[in-house]
């Protein structure tokens, strides 16, 4: 879908769904000032266009039990295409990695990991270092307190 073809109601649908994925279709329609059928049709069009990739629940990890969330910057030994591909395939198979981004600047990747404790995190990182994934060095940052984790404001992405 061409970005310019999104109107204010499409943006309102995306914004509402990014905050409340389980909202009832009739409630969503009311919030974006549409009747249910046109709202549903717009949702289906947005899904088909790939703008809505899925619906998820936000889980309270504290309620599940002890855990540690860690952000990790990673620098690879080699900057050949196959080195990046190998690292990305390796990380893609690690369940503890909940997010991984290729980044510009001094490091090659930023990873987000969730494990039961720091010892488990360190075991995973030791395994990653011992693997042939090509990690030269990494720096870890343990989350001590979550402050904010909201979806992006849709208007900001359009330049509003």
TrEMBL record:
Please tell me one Gene Ontology term that the record gives under cellular component.
cytosol
Ranges for the HTH asnC-type domain?
Answer: 6-67
Keyword annotations of the record: DNA-binding, Transcription, Transcription regulation
Look up keyword Membrane and say if it applies. Answer: no
Q: Which GO terms describe its biological process?
A: regulation of DNA-templated transcription; response to amino acid
Q: Name the InterPro entries for this protein.
A: ArsR-like_HTH, AsnC-type_HTH_dom, Dimeric_a/b-barrel, Tscrpt_reg_AsnC-like, Tscrpt_reg_AsnC/Lrp_C, WH-like_DNA-bd_sf, WH_DNA-bd_sf
GO MF terms listed in the record are:
sequence-specific DNA binding
**CDD domains recorded for this chain?**
HTH_ARSR
Q: What is the name of the protein in this document? A: AsnC family transcriptional regulator
Species name for this entry?
Answer: Donghicola eburneus
Q: What is the lineage of its organism?
A: Bacteria, Pseudomonadati, Pseudomonadota, Alphaproteobacteria, Rhodobacterales
């Amino acid at each position: 879908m061409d970005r310019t073809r999104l109107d204010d109601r499409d943006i309102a649908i995306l914004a509402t769904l990014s905050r409340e994925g389980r909202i009832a279709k009739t409630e969503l329609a009311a919030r974006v000032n549409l009747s249910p059928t046109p709202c549903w049709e717009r949702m289906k069009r947005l899904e088909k266009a790939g703008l809505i990739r899925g619906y998820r629940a936000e889980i309270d990890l504290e309620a599940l039990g002890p855990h540690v969330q860690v952000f990790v910057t990673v620098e690879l030994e080699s900057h050949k295409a196959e080195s990046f591909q190998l690292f990305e395939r390796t990380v893609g198979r690690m369940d503890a990695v909940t997010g991984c981004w290729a980044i510009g600047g001094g490091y090659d990747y930023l990873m987000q990991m969730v494990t039961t404790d720091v010892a488990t995190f360190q075991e995973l990182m030791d395994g990653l270092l011992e693997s042939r994934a090509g990690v030269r060095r990494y720096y870890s940052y343990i989350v001590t307190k979550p402050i904010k984790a909201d979806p992006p404001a849709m208007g900001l992405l359009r330049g509003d």
